[in-house]
Amino acid sequence: MKRQLILEDGSVFVGEGFGSEHVTEGEIVFTTGMTGYQETLTDPSFYGQIVTFTYPLIGNYGINEDDFEATCPYIKGVVVKEWANFPSNWRSSLSLDEFLKKYNIPGISSIDTRKLTRKIREFGTLKAAICDEHSDPSEIVESLKARQFQIDAVAQVSTKVCEEIAGSGKHIVLVDFGAKKNIVAELVKRNCKVTIVPFQTSATEILALKPDGVMLSNGPGNPKDVSCAIPMIQSLLGKIPLFGICLGHQLFALACGADTFKLKFGHRGANHPVQSVETGKTVMTAQNHGYAVNEQTLKGTGLIVTERALNDGTIEGLAHTVYPAFTVQYHPEASPGPHDSNPLFDQFLYLIEEHTKEETNYAKTH
Ligand SMILES: NC(=O)CC[C@H](N)C(=O)O
């Protein structure tokens, strides 16, 4: 069945439909990961987006729910060169096509994804629609121009209730802006007790849980749309060690008085090189973000840049110079992607340990 991918700038790509047959609209982005499509499809940070996979064959090891990063996908559509009709893996329970049908997500294949990606790189992130072959492109373009995606995104993906995962180690409160499951898994692996709380939870409510540390999770959309998190972070800063990932990093920067901006086409993939400012060491990272912190606005915030993206020089890591808090723009929990930066979770637990010692010493001497 022929379908069209129509972009906001009027470009039309004709391909073959798969997955759901309904019409979909969203912000079109591209990701360069060669594997890990299941984790990408189910990462809540992609809420409201149509994802183009630049790797030409997607779906060859099928779909299994164990690899999901959330209970269901929040993406609006999938664009591939080719999808695998006969997946081969003992863990697979569905094909990519069956998965997209199950969750009512349209897909389009046989698209020149290199040409499409060049377009997105040249013009920047665009709005797009996947629709049937008879739809009138000019009507679709008009409708796209009037649309705004990722509105209220965090509220759509954050947990509605607190959830506690037992553990004998440090107690970490994870503020859920659309957290990937693997962040929780990394904490559980380190014996942490984890309490996942909704994104509107106040600092007072968080402190009442008596955590040893607070994590600010990844999540979809523009950080400036999550204004309720700013006073929460400001009140926690200095009282409790903080670690932020991706959206959590951006919100932390805003709370400290810095600004964020939208990147032209974002960073999405599993092979983004990031360099430490202090040591010069480069690690490969998994990334999925469309916004970044503006380095020009760091003056007077108490923040220093700890890491930078080697591809475009944008900020990838921040630390507070006075309080125990650090954040990264990339994904140390990987899934999908390299595990080079996984030790950041240990670094966070070390920071908690040091903070506890300082607090105890202070209590003894006062
Ligand atoms: N993965 C994330 O947390 C993404 C953060 C934010 N929504 C962005 O696109 O920049």
Automatic annotation (TrEMBL):
Keywords assigned? Amino-acid biosynthesis, Arginine biosynthesis, ATP-binding, Glutamine amidotransferase, Ligase, Nucleotide-binding, Pyrimidine biosynthesis
Which reactions is this enzyme annotated as catalysing? L-glutamine + H2O = L-glutamate + NH4(+); hydrogencarbonate + L-glutamine + 2 ATP + H2O = carbamoyl phosphate + L-glutamate + 2 ADP + phosphate + 2 H(+)
EC top class, as a word: ligase
Looking up PANTHER family in the UniProt record yields: CARBAMOYL-PHOSPHATE SYNTHASE SMALL CHAIN, MULTIFUNCTIONAL TRYPTOPHAN BIOSYNTHESIS PROTEIN-RELATED
Residue ranges annotated for the Carbamoyl-phosphate synthase small subunit N-terminal domain, each copy included: 1-131
Q: Which residues form the active site?
A: C246, H331, E333
Query: Any idea what this protein is called?
Result: Carbamoyl phosphate synthase small chain
UniProt cross-references to InterPro entries, sorted A to Z: Anth_synth/Amidotransfase, CarbamoylP_synth_ssu, CarbamoylP_synth_ssu_N, CarbP_synth_ssu_N_sf, Class_I_gatase-like, CPSase_GATase1, GATASE
- Region spans: CPSase: 1-170
What are the GO MF terms of this UniProt record?
Answer: ATP binding; carbamoyl-phosphate synthase (glutamine-hydrolyzing) activity
Q: What does the protein in this record do? A: Small subunit of the glutamine-dependent carbamoyl phosphate synthetase (CPSase). CPSase catalyzes the formation of carbamoyl phosphate from the ammonia moiety of glutamine, carbonate, and phosphate donated by ATP, constituting the first step of 2 biosynthetic pathways, one leading to arginine and/or urea and the other to pyrimidine nucleotides. The small subunit (glutamine amidotransferase) binds and cleaves glutamine to supply the large subunit with the substrate ammonia.
Q: Which branch of life, at top level? A: Bacteria
Tell me which SMART domains the record gives.
Answer: CPSase_sm_chain
Gene (UniProt): carA
Q: Name one GO biological process term.
A: 'de novo' UMP biosynthetic process
Kindly list the positions annotated as binding L-glutamine: S45, G219, G221, L247, Q250, N288, G290, Y291
Subunit-level organization: Composed of two chains; the small (or glutamine) chain promotes the hydrolysis of glutamine to ammonia, which is used by the large (or ammonia) chain to synthesize carbamoyl phosphate. Tetramer of heterodimers (alpha,beta)4.
Q: What is its EC number?
A: 6.3.5.5
Which family does the UniProt entry place this protein in? Belongs to the CarA family.
Q: In which pathway does it act?
A: Pyrimidine metabolism; UMP biosynthesis via de novo pathway; (S)-dihydroorotate from bicarbonate: step 1/3; Amino-acid biosynthesis; L-arginine biosynthesis; carbamoyl phosphate from bicarbonate: step 1/1
